[in-house]
Structures are given as structure tokens and as C-alpha cells.
Design a protein that fits this description.
This protein is an alpha/beta fold and 451 residues long. The protein has 4 domains: 131 residues, 3-Layer(aba) Sandwich (Rossmann fold); 167 residues, Rossmann fold; 69 residues, Orthogonal Bundle (Helicase, Ruva Protein, domain 3), CATH 1.10.8; 58 residues, Orthogonal Bundle (Arc Repressor Mutant, subunit A). The chain is built from 20 helices and 14 strands. It has a 5-stranded parallel β-sheet, sandwiched between helices. A hairpin with a 6-residue loop joins strand 11 and strand 12. Helix 14 crosses helix 16, helix 15 runs parallel beside helix 17 and helix 16 packs across helix 17. The longest helix has 32 residues. It is flat and about 90 Å long. The model has no long low-confidence stretch (mean pLDDT 88). The structure holds adenosine-5'-triphosphate and magnesium ion.
């Protein structure tokens, strides 16, 4: 292979034509693979092939334009040069519009063909170099390890994170609960030039309404009754770094108005102070419903939404990317095994099928919890999941269940929750549930739970 390692696949059914074009190309130092038909080409090339295709349009087994479409279905950036003896401007225009790299009429000028092939090789080389660089960047950044998944949606999201991380534009991350909004925010921060500055996360849903302003903007002593000392707000703490406003639509509307001003001007006042303070942060916000709905319900100010959504990143729910389930589950089982010092149990294929068929209303967080419980369970591997998914769905009565079964289900759930809260330590569970050790042991055995 010469010309930067690229092979020229020359597809031409006419033997005389094929050997003369191949000769020209070889004389110009290209590496040529002559083919008499289109079909073998499609078996040879793949995504990322270091290849350029030069093909006749009229061939017995396939029209060159169809071949071009098929090639670009395999790799949309693979250059295809077409030539034809039946001079037809319309066909040329249409082929170019459909992504053909160049269109050359027969009888053609050898120089014109060689020049076109040279440029196509150059382009192919650049595209491949770029892809290689990107995948190295992804490996370097650890993005694959932080944001796990191979579905097209997650691949695209990782790409968007790489593209958007270095710019300072505001980002709005949208996704249902547990889909990984915080993971995305932290990836954006860690791949940004601000990565060695603070990432300050504010959970807007968790701050009491009356304290929201002081939490964000800080206060001076005496600003309100309980404000005895000076306090820096989160906006100030985020100076130089990234401010992550989680569940933004849960912030009181008046505070949203103040926040809007602070974002626009990158300045604010502490409560009880007239001094205007400047702050420089990159803003990432998250909401877990559709923004339009939140605006209509008057939970989210429209102007704030438009200020924050310069870039919108959507994370689809897990049920729309079921192919990510096996990998996520295996990785979470490995984590859980390390954390709880248990052997790793990898799911068998029946378990995987059941996992992929589950709807995951709690998304990746729910999957992570199930993986932890799966790892902790003492049941034989093939029996573990049934009980986990059933009870994870909820403990509402199933059809035909009497009071006894329902009470048992609830009891099992309460014991399991307590075990989880205390990370499997029995003594605090005994204290919390006020049970004698023997009774707890007996119930744990009956319900297949382990400490
Ligand atoms: N693609 C992923 N790869 C690895 N871990 C993930 C992924 N998505 C989510 N997680 C894990 O799942 C859990 C939930 O993720 P995260 O807290 O980011 O979700 P969220 O969208 O912010 O949820 P909420 O709406 O409840 O705040 C975390 O433990 C996180 O590490
Ligand atoms: Mg979150």
C-alpha cells in the first residue's frame, strides 16, 4: 500500500478497460485491487477500511450508483468515484448529490482520474486519522468507563460530550430519573478546561424553598433571622469551575428569575449585601421531564430554559436502549462484588433475557440496585433474578394474593431494605427492626436473604 496506506478498489466489468486503468494507477504508485464485479467489493470493505472505490456505472451485476449507496451504507465517509461512458450530466449531478466523491466521463483524461483518486486518498486518510484520534481520546478520557453502553444513543452521547466539553456554552441535560444525568454532567466537567476547578452540584429539589436564595447566592450576617454568619453561595463556590443545577425545574420560580439574571450577567449579590460580585462558571442544568411540559405547568421559567439550553443533551430511558443492559449489569455486578467482598456472579443467558425484557422504570439506578442485590443474594444464580425483579417492580398485591402473602412480601421488603441500609451488617438490622436474632435468621432463610 502506498499513497498513505489506502487501497484503490477498481470495479469495472470490461477487462481491457480494467487492466488499462489499473496500470495507470499502479504507474502513479497507487495500490490497486481490480475487481470484475461489484459483489466481491461489498464483502471486502468494512467501516474504517483504508479504501477508495473507483467504479464503472454500468455493470452487469450492479449499477455503480447502487454500489456507491451500498458502500456508503457500510461507511458514509468512504470515497466512491464513478465513471461512465454514457455522458449524462443529470446522472452526474444526481450522483454527486447522493454523496458520490467524483464523477468522471469516459473516455477520460488519465491525469484527471489520477488527481481525483489522489484527493480521495488524502481525504480518506484524514478521516481515518481523525477517527483514530477520537477513539484514543475517548480511551484517554476514560469516557467509556464512566458512561457505559454501546447502543447508538450512548455512542452518540459520548461523541456529543467530547464535542461539547471544551466549549463554555450552557448545557441542559434531559433524562428520566436514574438515566445518568449526573454522570453526563461530571463527564462534561472532567473533559473541560475547568476540570481542575470545582464542580459544584446543587440539588434544587432538596433545598427548602426559604433557603434556596441563600444557598445559591450566599448571605451576609443579619440578612435574615437565622443568618448569624457570612456564607458563600454555591455560585461563588463554582467560580472558575462548573455549576451543576440538578432538577432545575424544582427551584422556586422567584429564585429562577434571580438565577436568570445571575447567569446572564455572571454577577449577583449576596443576600443582605449591595456589593455586586462577579463569578465565572460553566453552567450545566438537568431536568427529568420534557421542558415544554415543565414550562406549561409553570414549574420552569421559559426565559431561563432558553438561557440554559444552548446545548441540549438527551439521555434516552433504558427501555429504549435495551442492548446496554447486559454490559451495565455485568459491570455493576463486578463493582458490587468488590464493594461487598463477594464473588462475582455473572448472569447466565436466561437472566440476561429477563433483564433485557424488564422495563426499568428507575432506569440505570434501578439496574445498579438489582445488580447489587443479585450479587448479595444467596439463592442459586438461576433463581435470584425472579424474586429481585418481582419485588423491585413494587410490592403491590398481585392478582389472587391474600393478606398473608401480602404481609410476607412487605416483611421481606422491609428486612431487605434494612439489610441494604446497613450494608449487610446484622446487628444494626436487629436493633432497627427490634427482632431477636433467631427470628431474623429464620426470616432471612425463608425469604432467601443474606447479610
Ligand atoms: N451509562 C452509565 N454508565 C455507568 N453508570 C451509570 C450510567 N448511567 C447511570 N449510571 C449510574 O446510575 C446511577 C444513576 O445515575 P445518575 O445519578 O447520574 O442519574 P440521574 O439521571 O442524575 O438520576 P436522578 O434523576 O434520579 O437524579 C448512578 O449510580 C450512576 O453512576
Ligand atoms: Mg441526578
Amino acid at each position: 500500500m502506498t499513497e498513505q496506506g489506502v487501497t484503490i478498489y477498481l470495479v469495472e466489468d470490461d477487462e481491457a478497460m480494467r487492466s488499462s486503468v489499473a496500470r495507470w494507477l499502479r504507474l502513479a504508485d497507487f495500490h490497486v485491487e481490480p475487481l470484475a464485479a461489484a459483489a466481491p467489493l461489498l464483502e471486502t470493505i468494512a467501516t474504517d477500511s483504508p479504501a477508495v472505490v473507483v467504479s464503472d456505472v454500468r455493470m452487469p451485476d450492479m449499477d455503480g450508483r447502487d454500489l456507491q449507496q451500498a458502500v456508503q451504507h457500510i461507511d458514509p465517509d468512504l470515497p466512491v468515484i464513478l465513471f461512465t461512458g454514457h455522458g449524462d450530466i443529470d446522472m452526474a449531478v444526481e450522483a454527486m448529490r447522493n454523496g458520490c466523491y467524483d464523477f468522471i466521463e469516459k473516455p477520460f483524461n488519465a491525469e484527471r482520474l489520477l488527481e481525483s483518486v489522489r484527493r480521495a486518498c488524502e481525504k480518506r486518510h484524514l478521516v481515518l486519522e481523525n477517527r483514530n484520534l477520537r477513539s484514543q481520546m475517548e480511551d484517554l478520557s476514560g469516557l467509556h468507563a464512566r458512561l457505559i453502553g454501546r447502543s447508538p444513543a450512548i455512542n452518540k452521547l459520548r461523541q456529543e460530550i467530547i464535542d461539547m466539553a471544551p466549549v463554555d456554552a450552557n448545557v441542559l441535560v434531559i433524562g428520566e430519573t436514574g438515566t445518568g444525568k449526573e454522570v453526563v454532567a461530571s463527564c462534561l466537567h472532567h473533559l473541560s478546561p475547568r476540570h481542575d476547578q470545582p464542580l459544584v452540584a446543587v440539588n434544587c429539589a432538596a433545598i427548602p424553598e426559604t433557603l434556596a436564595e441563600s444557598e445559591l447566592f450566599g448571605h451576609e450576617p443579619g440578612a435574615f433571622t437565622s443568618a448569624s454568619t457570612r456564607r458563600k453561595g454555591r455560585l461563588e463556590e463554582a467560580h472558575g469551575g462548573t455549576l451543576f443545577l440538578d432538577e432545575m425545574a424544582d427551584m422556586p420560580l422567584e429564585v429562577q428569575a434571580k438565577l436568570l439574571r445571575a447567569i446572564q450577567e455572571r454577577s449577583f449579590n449576596r443576600l443582605g449585601s449591595n456589593t455586586v460580585r462577579n463569578t465565572d462558571f460553566r453552567l450545566i442544568a438537568a431536568i427529568n421531564t420534557d421542558a415544554r411540559g415543565a414550562i406549561q405547568r409553570r414549574e420552569l421559567r421559559e426565559d431561563l430554559y432558553y438561557r440554559v439550553n444552548t446545548i441540549e443533551l438527551h439521555i434516552p430511558p433504558l427501555r429504549e436502549r435495551r442492548e446496554d443492559v447486559p454490559m451495565l449489569f455485568s459491570v455493576f455486578c463486578e463493582h458490587a462484588a468488590v464493594v461487598y467482598d463477594r464473588p462475582v456472579t455473572y448472569p447466565d443467558s436466561a437472566t440476561l433475557t429477563a433483564l433485557m425484557n424488564h422495563d426499568w422504570p428507575g432506569n440505570v439506578r434501578e439496574l445498579k440496585n438489582v445488580a447489587a442485590r443479585y450479587t448479595l443474594s444467596s439463592l442459586p444464580p438461576e433463581e435470584r433474578l425472579g424474586s429481585l425483579l418481582r419485588q423491585d417492580n413494587d410490592i403491590a398485591p398481585a392478582p389472587g394474593e391474600g393478606l398473608r402473602e401480602q404481609v410476607q412480601k412487605l416483611e421481606r421488603q422491609l428486612i431487605q431494605d434494612a439489610l441494604r441500609r446497613h450494608e449487610g451488617r446484622i446487628t444494626p438490622v436487629l436493633e432497627e427492626l427490634q427482632l431477636p436474632r433467631r427470628t431474623l435468621n429464620e426470616k432471612m432463610r425463608r425469604y432467601g436473604l443474606r447479610g
